[in-house]
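hey can u check if this looks right to u? its 172 residues, i copy pasted from the old doc so theres a chance i mangled smth
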Amino acid sequence: MNEKALTVLDRYDLEIKDTYRTKGNYGCKTSKGKYILQEYNNSNDKMEIMKKLYDYMEENGLKSDYVIADTEGNFVSVSEDGYSYILKRWFDAEECNINNIKHICLGAEQLGRFHKLCEDMTDMFDGDKGFHPGENMEQSFERHNKEIIKIRNYIKKRKNKNYFEMSLQNVI
């Protein structure tokens, strides 16, 4: 990312106090809180659908880094250098420490809340351009299991197995 990316910030109704680099993005401190500017390689239509999901999550008590529309109502903004960006609300949070049982339990609880919340919401996206409903998981697992069996049989038939193939044969 380069400094030209920051030109898109002029399109938002925000008073930018400070910007800083963070993990390949730009963080922004404003009078309304923290935001993050991220490069985005998809359509505005897709982001409109994602905004529906973010709003639904927020309305039902799950904190989200939801996307912000610019002054023209677009979620995707193109900078002077031709790259597309989105601006998302950001917040201070601690990363999950996988060695801390409390972090793991809290993460699992939040994931469960998310899944429960999204259980019956496909009708919310009916008719949305760009929305691709998920495939039948049972069929997907069957297909993947068949692929694994083919790989196992292929490795079994090979006479000169390399280290990876021998290791894989012990797993599948």
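The chain has a mean pLDDT of 84.
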